[in-house]
Amino acid sequence: MIPDNPFKKTKNHFELLYDMLLDAIPSSVLMVDEKLHVVSVNRNFLLKSQRNKANTLGRPLSEVFPTIILENTGIEERIRNVFRSGLPINAQKMTYRAPGVPIRIYYYSILPIPINQIMLLMEDVTEQVRLSEEVRRVERHLASVVESASDIVLSTDIEGRILTWNSAAEKLSGLSSHEVHGQYFYEFCDINQKQAVRFIFKRMKNSNESHTTEFHLLTANNCGSILISWVFSPMKDDYGQTVGTVVVGRDLAERRKLELQLRQSQKLTALGVMAGGIAHEIRNPLAVCSSAAQFLVENNITAEFHRECSRKIQTNIQKASAIIENLLRFARSSLDTEMVEVDLVHVLKETIELIANQAKVQKIQILLPLQKEHILVSGVSGLLQQVFMNVFLNAINAMPEGGQLSIAFHTFEDRVVVRVSDTGFGIPPGELDKIFDPFHTSSPVGQGTGLGLSICYSIIQQHLGSIQAESRYGEGATIIVTLPLL
What we know:
The protein has 486 residues and is an alpha+beta fold. It contains 14 helices and 17 strands.
């Protein structure tokens, strides 16, 4: 009996290990000899080419590869050059489309092996290329959206330095993206608001929420500034960490002009509602003046009575003048929209004076219990007066048979809440969510525009506050206005 050859066992073991290593490579691998015959091949290549070892091993490369690949790549000549020079060829592109199969894209390398063979290594990158193209398409689409937007869209790093600046930003500011790139965003804000903008960026570092505000953006060559409504949103990376800020801004010039027109129209409507009560209030002092003047033309009155008549005329003329002055102050256009320190208590008292006569005519009692003499907020006095004028008149209209209008204050650490309640017929449940919508009104046709509370909502938003309503139908309603304290 002939003993087993140990070298043969070792060789078989080596070949098995070699085949296993080839099959473990995720790319397609062929081993080719000097005659360009396939010596070895891995499982990945057989799967991709839909072949088996029986019709692949020992076959010339021209039978294994499609003719179109051989003609377009010159791969056979390249392999011969590697045999001659001993130098590898790396990362060459190859594309192939079989009938009825989508195009495939490969990168291949030709590597010399010391056992006088060549390794042909092919990596299928079709999916990576498609994904890359899809990413580029999405990026181009997003860039097009940003550039086509009529609003300012910019991005900054976590410290507030500008990274991108779209066409709308260039058009409105007159500053090119090259001029602003790398500059701190607050440098292009109004000098009085720079500190506030820096604070916003500081908050963005640890915030997951957007921040909305309004401030002026400086324009090129010191040509002034434009009022912009801004939304600051944190920009996150793949790990949820804040890496920057996305800032969107909208020019408020046209909107402010329209709001001014609407507010003025609503003021005239409010004045019409108050006309009856005011006419009654002015008629009284005028009647006193008329009576006193008739006595003054008589010759037989005493000097003391003469002085008394003169004092009554002067007092009642001043009273009528004060009423007219309040009306003019309310009706005047609110051209000044600069936020300043405003005493909310004073605003409410002035507004109550304007509607007091109308309330008296309709037998409505006004309650204003004051726990504080002054409550300071940042705002525009005329606009806040218009808000409460609309709210008070709506409450009066809801109590045609008389009732009670009460105003209550509640101050907290950073805000004040004003609750205006009436004892009228209330708001139907289905209407409660709509009362701040433009042109929504429950008044008969011709008696209301439906803009009053919508304008109130816009003004309170401008003051960084909120306004909402509570009501139980048949039991009155309450309007709640919240404003930040100074």
